[in-house]
Structures are given as structure tokens and as C-alpha cells.
Design brief:
With about 60 residues, the protein is mainly alpha-helical. It contains two helices and two strands, in the order αββα. Strands 1-2 form a two-stranded antiparallel ribbon. It starts with a helix and ends in a 7-residue tail after the last helix. The model has no long low-confidence stretch (mean pLDDT about 95).
């Protein structure tokens, strides 16, 4: 994900990524991390497409 450890812990604690705790350690499934990554990537791409469409409407010359 290329995020800091404190940010990753916040994602876990906020429920964005499922985990279970064994003692003091958090266990995270790779499938759950990849699902989160796919969700955020698709949201970013959607926002980029909207910005590109707005730029096209305004004649700014951006195209995706």
C-alpha cells in the first residue's frame, strides 16, 4: 500500500481493513488488504475520470 505504519494501524482500527488480534499482535489477511487496495484504486480512477471530463468541458485539453 506504500503507507506509513501508523496510518495502516489507523485503517485497521477504523475498520477499513479487517484484522484479528492475537495477544498484542494484529493479523491481517492479504486478501483483505488487496480488497482495500482495489477499492481505493477504483475510487481514485473514478475521481480522475471526473476531473478529466470537467477539464474537457472547460476546454483545458486534458484527456484520459
Amino acid at each position: 500500500l506504500f503507507v506509513s505504519r501508523p496510518y495502516f494501524i489507523k485503517l485497521l482500527e477504523n475498520g477499513a481493513i479487517a484484522f484479528r488480534k492475537i495477544g498484542k499482535h494484529r493479523r491481517v489477511r492479504l486478501a483483505d488488504v488487496m480488497h482495500y487496495k482495489q477499492q481505493t484504486d477504483s475510487l481514485r480512477l473514478e475521481a480522475l475520470r471526473e476531473l478529466a471530463a470537467q477539464a474537457q468541458e472547460l476546454g483545458m485539453g486534458y484527456d484520459l
